[in-house]
Amino acid sequence: MAAFRTLDDLDAGQRVLCRLDLNSPVEDGAVQDNRRFDRHAETVSELHAADHRVALLAHQGRPGRDTFVGLEQHAEILSEHAGVDVTYVPDTYGEEALAAIRETEPGDVLLLENTRMVDAELPEESPETKADTEFVRTLAAEVDAYVNDAYSAAHRSHASLVGFPRVLPSYAGRVMATEYEANTAIAAREFDGEVTMVVGGTKATDVIEVMEALGDRVDTFLLGGVAGELFLRAAGYPVGEDVDAELFDEQWAANGDTVERVLEEYGDAVRLADDLAYADADGDRAEIGVEEIDTKETDFLDVGGSTVAEYQSRIHRSEAVFVKGALGVFEDERFADGTVGVLEAIAETDCFSVVGGGDTSRAIELYGLDEADFSHVSIAGGAYIRALTGQELVGVAELERSAESDGD
Protein backbone atom coordinates (compact mmCIF):
# COMPACT_ATOMS: atom_id res chain seq x y z
CA MET A 1 0.00 0.00 0.00
CA ALA A 2 1.22 3.49 -0.79
CA ALA A 3 2.63 5.55 2.05
CA PHE A 4 0.16 8.40 1.73
CA ARG A 5 -2.49 9.64 4.12
CA THR A 6 -6.16 9.11 3.38
CA LEU A 7 -9.44 10.64 4.54
CA ASP A 8 -9.14 8.46 7.63
CA ASP A 9 -6.29 10.73 8.73
CA LEU A 10 -8.07 14.02 8.04
CA ASP A 11 -9.50 15.82 11.07
CA ALA A 12 -13.13 16.92 10.71
CA GLY A 13 -14.32 20.47 10.17
CA GLN A 14 -11.56 21.88 7.97
CA ARG A 15 -11.46 23.97 4.82
CA VAL A 16 -10.54 21.43 2.18
CA LEU A 17 -9.49 21.78 -1.45
CA CYS A 18 -10.28 18.52 -3.26
CA ARG A 19 -9.18 17.58 -6.79
CA LEU A 20 -11.49 15.24 -8.73
CA ASP A 21 -11.34 13.94 -12.29
CA LEU A 22 -14.76 14.58 -13.82
CA ASN A 23 -13.49 14.78 -17.42
CA SER A 24 -16.37 13.41 -19.49
CA PRO A 25 -17.63 12.98 -23.04
CA VAL A 26 -19.53 16.00 -24.35
CA GLU A 27 -22.20 15.52 -27.02
CA ASP A 28 -23.78 18.58 -28.64
CA GLY A 29 -22.70 20.64 -25.64
CA ALA A 30 -24.21 18.23 -23.11
CA VAL A 31 -21.87 16.67 -20.56
CA GLN A 32 -22.50 12.92 -20.36
CA ASP A 33 -23.00 11.19 -17.03
CA ASN A 34 -20.51 8.37 -16.39
CA ARG A 35 -19.04 6.25 -13.59
CA ARG A 36 -16.50 8.93 -12.64
CA PHE A 37 -19.26 10.98 -11.04
CA ASP A 38 -20.51 7.98 -9.09
CA ARG A 39 -17.02 7.05 -7.89
CA HIS A 40 -16.05 10.54 -6.77
CA ALA A 41 -19.43 11.01 -5.09
CA GLU A 42 -18.19 8.79 -2.24
CA THR A 43 -15.36 11.18 -1.42
CA VAL A 44 -17.59 14.25 -1.78
CA SER A 45 -20.36 12.90 0.43
CA GLU A 46 -17.82 11.81 3.06
CA LEU A 47 -16.22 15.27 3.16
CA HIS A 48 -19.67 16.82 3.46
CA ALA A 49 -20.66 14.47 6.29
CA ALA A 50 -17.50 15.34 8.23
CA ASP A 51 -18.51 19.03 8.21
CA HIS A 52 -15.65 20.15 6.00
CA ARG A 53 -16.00 23.32 3.98
CA VAL A 54 -15.19 21.89 0.55
CA ALA A 55 -13.94 23.52 -2.65
CA LEU A 56 -13.67 21.04 -5.52
CA LEU A 57 -11.31 21.33 -8.46
CA ALA A 58 -11.69 19.42 -11.74
CA HIS A 59 -10.84 19.71 -15.42
CA GLN A 60 -12.80 19.20 -18.63
CA GLY A 61 -11.29 18.84 -22.09
CA ARG A 62 -8.40 20.85 -23.45
CA PRO A 63 -8.31 24.39 -24.87
CA GLY A 64 -9.36 24.41 -28.51
CA ARG A 65 -11.45 21.24 -28.36
CA ASP A 66 -15.22 20.87 -28.41
CA THR A 67 -15.06 19.17 -25.00
CA PHE A 68 -13.47 22.25 -23.41
CA VAL A 69 -16.46 23.58 -21.46
CA GLY A 70 -17.22 24.95 -18.03
CA LEU A 71 -18.25 22.79 -15.08
CA GLU A 72 -21.80 23.96 -14.39
CA GLN A 73 -23.31 20.74 -15.74
CA HIS A 74 -20.75 18.71 -13.81
CA ALA A 75 -21.95 20.29 -10.56
CA GLU A 76 -25.52 19.24 -11.30
CA ILE A 77 -24.57 15.65 -12.17
CA LEU A 78 -22.27 15.32 -9.16
CA SER A 79 -25.00 16.66 -6.87
CA GLU A 80 -27.33 13.88 -7.99
CA HIS A 81 -24.74 11.15 -7.40
CA ALA A 82 -23.50 12.45 -4.05
CA GLY A 83 -26.86 13.45 -2.62
CA VAL A 84 -25.26 16.76 -1.69
CA ASP A 85 -25.84 20.29 -3.02
CA VAL A 86 -22.78 21.13 -5.10
CA THR A 87 -22.65 24.84 -5.89
CA TYR A 88 -20.99 25.82 -9.16
CA VAL A 89 -18.66 28.82 -9.02
CA PRO A 90 -17.77 30.24 -12.48
CA ASP A 91 -14.28 31.22 -11.31
CA THR A 92 -11.22 29.20 -10.31
CA TYR A 93 -9.07 31.43 -8.11
CA GLY A 94 -10.19 35.00 -8.68
CA GLU A 95 -12.15 37.21 -6.29
CA GLU A 96 -15.44 35.40 -6.96
CA ALA A 97 -13.92 32.02 -6.09
CA LEU A 98 -12.14 33.35 -3.00
CA ALA A 99 -15.29 35.05 -1.71
CA ALA A 100 -17.29 31.84 -2.21
CA ILE A 101 -14.71 29.81 -0.29
CA ARG A 102 -14.62 32.31 2.58
CA GLU A 103 -18.40 32.26 2.87
CA THR A 104 -18.78 28.49 3.09
CA GLU A 105 -20.37 26.90 6.15
CA PRO A 106 -19.60 23.40 7.52
CA GLY A 107 -20.84 20.82 5.01
CA ASP A 108 -20.93 23.23 2.06
CA VAL A 109 -19.52 21.96 -1.25
CA LEU A 110 -18.39 24.21 -4.09
CA LEU A 111 -17.19 23.23 -7.56
CA LEU A 112 -14.79 25.83 -8.90
CA GLU A 113 -14.38 26.47 -12.62
CA ASN A 114 -12.41 24.22 -15.01
CA THR A 115 -8.76 24.18 -13.92
CA ARG A 116 -7.65 24.09 -17.55
CA MET A 117 -9.00 27.59 -17.99
CA VAL A 118 -6.06 28.65 -15.80
CA ASP A 119 -2.87 29.37 -17.75
CA ALA A 120 -0.63 27.85 -15.07
CA GLU A 121 -2.45 24.50 -14.99
CA LEU A 122 -1.47 22.59 -18.11
CA PRO A 123 2.25 22.90 -18.88
CA GLU A 124 4.08 19.79 -17.65
CA GLU A 125 6.46 21.31 -15.09
CA SER A 126 8.04 20.24 -11.83
CA PRO A 127 5.97 20.19 -8.62
CA GLU A 128 8.25 22.92 -7.24
CA THR A 129 7.44 25.16 -10.20
CA LYS A 130 3.72 24.46 -9.96
CA ALA A 131 3.70 25.16 -6.22
CA ASP A 132 5.06 28.63 -6.88
CA THR A 133 2.30 29.64 -9.32
CA GLU A 134 -0.17 32.36 -8.37
CA PHE A 135 -2.96 29.82 -8.88
CA VAL A 136 -1.62 27.45 -6.21
CA ARG A 137 -0.40 30.12 -3.78
CA THR A 138 -3.72 32.00 -3.91
CA LEU A 139 -6.00 29.03 -3.29
CA ALA A 140 -3.70 27.36 -0.77
CA ALA A 141 -3.92 30.44 1.44
CA GLU A 142 -7.68 29.94 1.78
CA VAL A 143 -7.75 26.30 2.91
CA ASP A 144 -6.32 23.98 5.56
CA ALA A 145 -5.78 20.78 3.59
CA TYR A 146 -5.65 19.30 0.11
CA VAL A 147 -7.27 16.02 -1.03
CA ASN A 148 -6.32 14.40 -4.35
CA ASP A 149 -8.97 11.99 -5.59
CA ALA A 150 -8.01 12.25 -9.28
CA TYR A 151 -6.11 8.99 -9.72
CA SER A 152 -6.87 8.85 -13.44
CA ALA A 153 -4.95 12.12 -13.90
CA ALA A 154 -2.18 11.28 -11.41
CA HIS A 155 0.39 10.81 -14.17
CA ARG A 156 0.09 14.50 -15.11
CA SER A 157 2.36 17.11 -13.54
CA HIS A 158 -0.30 19.81 -13.61
CA ALA A 159 -0.66 22.56 -11.03
CA SER A 160 -3.87 21.33 -9.42
CA LEU A 161 -2.40 17.83 -9.06
CA VAL A 162 1.18 18.38 -7.89
CA GLY A 163 1.44 21.99 -6.71
CA PHE A 164 -0.83 21.87 -3.67
CA PRO A 165 0.84 18.88 -1.95
CA ARG A 166 4.00 21.01 -1.78
CA VAL A 167 2.30 23.69 0.33
CA LEU A 168 -0.58 21.96 2.16
CA PRO A 169 -1.09 18.85 4.29
CA SER A 170 -2.30 16.39 1.66
CA TYR A 171 -4.48 13.28 1.61
CA ALA A 172 -5.76 10.68 -0.84
CA GLY A 173 -9.49 10.53 -1.50
CA ARG A 174 -11.35 7.23 -1.72
CA VAL A 175 -10.96 6.87 -5.50
CA MET A 176 -7.24 7.59 -5.32
CA ALA A 177 -6.63 5.05 -2.57
CA THR A 178 -8.82 2.32 -4.08
CA GLU A 179 -7.47 2.70 -7.61
CA TYR A 180 -3.87 2.71 -6.46
CA GLU A 181 -4.25 -0.43 -4.38
CA ALA A 182 -6.08 -2.37 -7.12
CA ASN A 183 -3.94 -1.27 -10.05
CA THR A 184 -0.64 -2.05 -8.33
CA ALA A 185 -1.88 -5.44 -7.06
CA ILE A 186 -0.28 -7.32 -9.94
CA ALA A 187 3.14 -6.22 -8.72
CA ALA A 188 2.43 -6.07 -4.99
CA ARG A 189 0.33 -9.18 -4.32
CA GLU A 190 1.28 -12.82 -4.35
CA PHE A 191 -1.05 -15.21 -6.19
CA ASP A 192 -0.83 -18.98 -5.74
CA GLY A 193 -2.62 -19.86 -8.97
CA GLU A 194 -2.41 -18.72 -12.59
CA VAL A 195 -2.25 -15.01 -13.38
CA THR A 196 -3.77 -14.09 -16.73
CA MET A 197 -3.75 -10.78 -18.52
CA VAL A 198 -6.08 -9.86 -21.38
CA VAL A 199 -4.23 -7.35 -23.55
CA GLY A 200 -5.74 -5.50 -26.49
CA GLY A 201 -6.50 -2.01 -27.65
CA THR A 202 -5.03 0.00 -30.48
CA LYS A 203 -1.51 0.78 -29.27
CA ALA A 204 1.28 -1.74 -29.68
CA THR A 205 3.55 0.34 -27.45
CA ASP A 206 1.18 -0.11 -24.49
CA VAL A 207 1.13 -3.88 -24.97
CA ILE A 208 4.91 -4.05 -25.32
CA GLU A 209 5.44 -2.05 -22.14
CA VAL A 210 2.97 -4.18 -20.18
CA MET A 211 4.45 -7.48 -21.36
CA GLU A 212 8.03 -6.41 -20.68
CA ALA A 213 7.16 -5.04 -17.25
CA LEU A 214 5.01 -7.99 -16.15
CA GLY A 215 6.53 -10.95 -17.95
CA ASP A 216 7.71 -12.46 -14.68
CA ARG A 217 4.35 -11.91 -12.96
CA VAL A 218 1.92 -13.09 -15.64
CA ASP A 219 1.54 -16.72 -16.71
CA THR A 220 -0.51 -16.07 -19.83
CA PHE A 221 -1.15 -13.02 -22.02
CA LEU A 222 -4.33 -13.24 -24.14
CA LEU A 223 -3.95 -10.88 -27.10
CA GLY A 224 -6.49 -9.18 -29.34
CA GLY A 225 -7.38 -5.86 -30.89
CA VAL A 226 -5.04 -3.94 -33.16
CA ALA A 227 -2.10 -4.87 -30.96
CA GLY A 228 -2.98 -8.55 -31.20
CA GLU A 229 -3.10 -8.36 -34.97
CA LEU A 230 0.36 -6.77 -35.05
CA PHE A 231 1.64 -9.68 -32.97
CA LEU A 232 0.03 -12.08 -35.46
CA ARG A 233 1.97 -10.29 -38.19
CA ALA A 234 5.15 -10.81 -36.18
CA ALA A 235 4.27 -14.51 -36.01
CA GLY A 236 4.22 -14.67 -39.83
CA TYR A 237 0.53 -14.31 -40.64
CA PRO A 238 -0.53 -11.94 -43.49
CA VAL A 239 -2.49 -9.61 -41.21
CA GLY A 240 -1.68 -6.49 -39.20
CA GLU A 241 -1.66 -4.31 -42.32
CA ASP A 242 -3.73 -1.29 -43.27
CA VAL A 243 -6.70 -1.83 -45.58
CA ASP A 244 -9.25 0.90 -44.88
CA ALA A 245 -8.24 2.07 -41.40
CA GLU A 246 -4.73 3.43 -40.90
CA LEU A 247 -3.95 1.62 -37.67
CA PHE A 248 -1.23 -0.86 -38.51
CA ASP A 249 1.51 0.10 -40.98
CA GLU A 250 2.79 3.14 -39.12
CA GLN A 251 2.88 1.22 -35.84
CA TRP A 252 4.63 -1.71 -37.52
CA ALA A 253 7.28 0.59 -38.99
CA ALA A 254 7.93 2.06 -35.54
CA ASN A 255 7.59 -1.09 -33.42
CA GLY A 256 7.78 -4.16 -35.66
CA ASP A 257 11.26 -5.20 -34.56
CA THR A 258 10.30 -4.80 -30.92
CA VAL A 259 7.06 -6.77 -31.37
CA GLU A 260 9.04 -9.61 -32.95
CA ARG A 261 11.57 -9.56 -30.12
CA VAL A 262 8.88 -9.50 -27.41
CA LEU A 263 6.98 -12.33 -29.09
CA GLU A 264 10.13 -14.43 -29.24
CA GLU A 265 11.07 -13.63 -25.64
CA TYR A 266 7.63 -14.26 -24.13
CA GLY A 267 6.26 -16.64 -26.77
CA ASP A 268 5.46 -19.46 -24.34
CA ALA A 269 3.22 -17.13 -22.34
CA VAL A 270 1.52 -15.46 -25.33
CA ARG A 271 -1.74 -16.68 -26.82
CA LEU A 272 -2.66 -15.19 -30.17
CA ALA A 273 -6.05 -15.34 -31.88
CA ASP A 274 -6.79 -18.52 -33.86
CA ASP A 275 -9.50 -16.77 -35.82
CA LEU A 276 -10.68 -13.24 -36.59
CA ALA A 277 -14.04 -11.63 -37.34
CA TYR A 278 -14.98 -9.19 -40.10
CA ALA A 279 -18.05 -7.76 -41.84
CA ASP A 280 -19.09 -9.73 -44.93
CA ALA A 281 -20.68 -8.27 -48.07
CA ASP A 282 -24.07 -8.15 -46.34
CA GLY A 283 -22.64 -6.41 -43.28
CA ASP A 284 -23.00 -9.48 -41.10
CA ARG A 285 -20.33 -10.85 -38.80
CA ALA A 286 -18.16 -13.49 -40.48
CA GLU A 287 -15.10 -15.34 -39.19
CA ILE A 288 -11.97 -16.86 -40.68
CA GLY A 289 -9.16 -18.91 -39.19
CA VAL A 290 -5.80 -17.17 -39.30
CA GLU A 291 -4.30 -20.19 -41.04
CA GLU A 292 -6.79 -19.68 -43.89
CA ILE A 293 -5.84 -16.06 -44.58
CA ASP A 294 -3.76 -15.63 -47.77
CA THR A 295 -3.80 -11.84 -47.91
CA LYS A 296 -5.59 -9.25 -45.81
CA GLU A 297 -8.41 -7.83 -47.89
CA THR A 298 -10.74 -6.49 -45.20
CA ASP A 299 -10.51 -5.01 -41.73
CA PHE A 300 -10.67 -7.52 -38.89
CA LEU A 301 -12.79 -6.11 -36.08
CA ASP A 302 -12.78 -8.79 -33.39
CA VAL A 303 -11.30 -12.13 -32.43
CA GLY A 304 -13.31 -15.14 -33.57
CA GLY A 305 -15.45 -17.62 -31.70
CA SER A 306 -12.75 -20.29 -31.34
CA THR A 307 -10.43 -17.73 -29.79
CA VAL A 308 -13.13 -16.48 -27.42
CA ALA A 309 -13.78 -20.04 -26.22
CA GLU A 310 -10.08 -20.68 -25.60
CA TYR A 311 -9.62 -17.38 -23.77
CA GLN A 312 -12.66 -18.07 -21.60
CA SER A 313 -11.31 -21.50 -20.70
CA ARG A 314 -8.00 -20.01 -19.58
CA ILE A 315 -9.75 -17.32 -17.54
CA HIS A 316 -11.94 -19.91 -15.79
CA ARG A 317 -8.85 -21.60 -14.35
CA SER A 318 -7.08 -18.39 -13.31
CA GLU A 319 -6.67 -17.03 -9.80
CA ALA A 320 -6.16 -13.48 -11.00
CA VAL A 321 -7.14 -11.75 -14.26
CA PHE A 322 -6.16 -8.25 -15.37
CA VAL A 323 -7.65 -6.57 -18.44
CA LYS A 324 -5.94 -3.85 -20.44
CA GLY A 325 -7.64 -2.92 -23.68
CA ALA A 326 -10.48 -4.30 -25.79
CA LEU A 327 -10.23 -7.33 -28.09
CA GLY A 328 -12.43 -5.78 -30.75
CA VAL A 329 -14.70 -2.92 -31.74
CA PHE A 330 -17.13 -3.71 -28.93
CA GLU A 331 -19.15 -0.54 -29.48
CA ASP A 332 -20.56 -2.38 -32.50
CA GLU A 333 -22.58 -5.30 -31.16
CA ARG A 334 -21.51 -7.48 -34.09
CA PHE A 335 -17.90 -7.28 -32.92
CA ALA A 336 -18.31 -7.36 -29.15
CA ASP A 337 -17.96 -11.15 -28.75
CA GLY A 338 -14.28 -11.05 -27.78
CA THR A 339 -14.37 -8.20 -25.28
CA VAL A 340 -17.70 -9.16 -23.73
CA GLY A 341 -16.86 -12.86 -23.80
CA VAL A 342 -13.76 -12.46 -21.65
CA LEU A 343 -15.57 -10.08 -19.30
CA GLU A 344 -18.39 -12.60 -18.87
CA ALA A 345 -15.84 -15.33 -18.13
CA ILE A 346 -14.16 -13.16 -15.51
CA ALA A 347 -17.53 -12.37 -13.91
CA GLU A 348 -18.27 -16.11 -13.68
CA THR A 349 -14.90 -16.96 -12.14
CA ASP A 350 -14.00 -16.72 -8.48
CA CYS A 351 -10.81 -14.79 -9.13
CA PHE A 352 -9.22 -11.47 -8.27
CA SER A 353 -9.93 -9.22 -11.25
CA VAL A 354 -9.09 -5.71 -12.37
CA VAL A 355 -10.58 -4.23 -15.55
CA GLY A 356 -9.18 -1.01 -16.94
CA GLY A 357 -7.42 0.73 -19.77
CA GLY A 358 -9.15 3.33 -21.92
CA ASP A 359 -12.78 2.51 -22.71
CA THR A 360 -12.66 -1.20 -21.89
CA SER A 361 -14.51 -0.80 -18.62
CA ARG A 362 -17.31 0.94 -20.52
CA ALA A 363 -18.24 -2.41 -22.08
CA ILE A 364 -19.37 -3.60 -18.64
CA GLU A 365 -22.07 -0.95 -18.52
CA LEU A 366 -22.83 -1.08 -22.24
CA TYR A 367 -23.61 -4.80 -22.18
CA GLY A 368 -25.39 -4.96 -18.83
CA LEU A 369 -22.72 -6.76 -16.83
CA ASP A 370 -22.66 -6.32 -13.06
CA GLU A 371 -19.69 -4.29 -11.86
CA ALA A 372 -19.94 -6.11 -8.52
CA ASP A 373 -18.75 -9.30 -10.25
CA PHE A 374 -15.28 -7.76 -10.67
CA SER A 375 -12.83 -7.00 -7.89
CA HIS A 376 -12.16 -3.56 -9.35
CA VAL A 377 -13.21 -1.64 -12.45
CA SER A 378 -10.76 1.17 -13.03
CA ILE A 379 -11.79 4.58 -14.34
CA ALA A 380 -8.19 5.32 -15.30
CA GLY A 381 -6.54 5.06 -18.70
CA GLY A 382 -3.00 6.41 -18.88
CA ALA A 383 -2.49 6.13 -15.13
CA TYR A 384 -3.61 2.49 -15.25
CA ILE A 385 -0.97 1.67 -17.87
CA ARG A 386 1.72 3.43 -15.87
CA ALA A 387 0.75 1.61 -12.70
CA LEU A 388 0.84 -1.75 -14.48
CA THR A 389 4.26 -1.04 -15.92
CA GLY A 390 5.74 0.23 -12.66
CA GLN A 391 6.16 3.84 -13.77
CA GLU A 392 5.89 6.57 -11.18
CA LEU A 393 2.65 8.52 -10.94
CA VAL A 394 3.74 12.00 -10.00
CA GLY A 395 0.43 12.80 -8.27
CA VAL A 396 0.83 9.74 -6.03
CA ALA A 397 4.50 10.50 -5.42
CA GLU A 398 3.61 14.00 -4.21
CA LEU A 399 1.04 12.61 -1.76
CA GLU A 400 3.71 10.26 -0.41
CA ARG A 401 6.25 13.08 -0.20
CA SER A 402 3.74 15.24 1.67
CA ALA A 403 3.06 12.51 4.23
CA GLU A 404 6.76 11.91 4.72
CA SER A 405 7.73 15.57 5.05
CA ASP A 406 4.91 16.38 7.47
CA GLY A 407 5.97 13.45 9.61
CA ASP A 408 9.53 14.75 10.02
Concise description?
By secondary structure, this protein is α/β, with parallel strands linked by helices.
What does the model show?
The model has no long low-confidence stretch (mean pLDDT 95). The protein has a six-stranded parallel beta sheet with strand order 5-6-4-1-7-8, with helices on both faces. A six-stranded parallel beta sheet has the order 11-10-9-15-16-17, with helices on both faces. A three-stranded antiparallel beta sheet has the order 13-12-14. It folds into two domains: 7-178 and 391-407, 3-Layer(aba) Sandwich (Rossmann fold); 185-388, Phosphoglycerate kinase, N-terminal domain (Rossmann fold), CATH 3.40.50. Helix 3 (95-102) links the parallel strand 5 and strand 6 (109-111). The protein has helices spanning 35-49, 72-82, 95-102, 127-131, 134-140, 159-163, 174-183, 185-188, 204-214, 225-234, 249-266, 305-316, 337-348, 362-366, 382-388, 394-407; strands at 15-19, 26-27, 30-31, 53-57, 86-88, 109-111, 145-148, 170-172, 194-199, 220-223, 270-271, 275-279, 285-289, 302-303, 318-324, 352-356, 376-377. It is an alpha/beta fold and 408 residues long.
Keywords:
about 400 residues, 16 helices, 17 strands, six-stranded parallel beta sheet, alpha/beta, about 40% helix, Rossmann fold, 2 domains, single chain
Per-chain topology:
Elements: E1 15-19, E2 26-27, E3 30-31, H1 35-49, E4 53-57, H2 72-82, E5 86-88, H3 95-102, E6 109-111, H4 127-131, H5 134-140, E7 145-148, H6 159-163, E8 170-172, H7 174-183, H8 185-188, E9 194-199, H9 204-214, E10 220-223, H10 225-234, H11 249-266, E11 270-271, E12 275-279, E13 285-289, E14 302-303, H12 305-316, E15 318-324, H13 337-348, E16 352-356, H14 362-366, E17 376-377, H15 382-388, H16 394-407
Parallel strand pairs: 1-4, 1-7, 4-6, 5-6, 7-8, 9-10, 9-15, 10-11, 15-16, 16-17
Antiparallel strand pairs: 2-3, 12-13, 12-14
Helix pairs in contact: 1-2, 9-11, 12-13
